[in-house]
Amino acid sequence: MTGFRLADGGGPVIPNYGEPSACLRHNGWFCTDWIHEHWGDTLQPALIQHIQLTLIAVGIGFVIAFGLALVALRFGFLDPPLGVFTDFLYMIPSLALFQLLVPLSGLTVTTVEIALVSYTLFILYRNIVVGLRSVPPDVLESARGMGLTRRQTFLRVELPLAMPAILSGLRIAIVATISIATVAAFLIQDGLGAPIFDAIGTPDLFKTELLAAGGLAILLALTADLLLAFAQRALTPWNRLR
Amino acid sequence: MVASTFADAFRFMPSHFSLLLEKAAQTAELAFAALAIALLIALPLGLWLGHRHRGLLLALSASSLGRSLPSVVLIGLGIAILGVGFWNNAMALVVLAIAPILTNTYFAVEGVDSDAVEAARGMGLTETQILTRVELPLGLPLLLAGLRIAAVFVIATATIAGIFGGGGLGDIMARQVTYGLGGVFAAAIWVAGLALLTAAALALAQRAASRRTAPRA
Question: Would the pTM of this model clear 0.95, i.e. be above it?
Answer without folding.
Answer: no
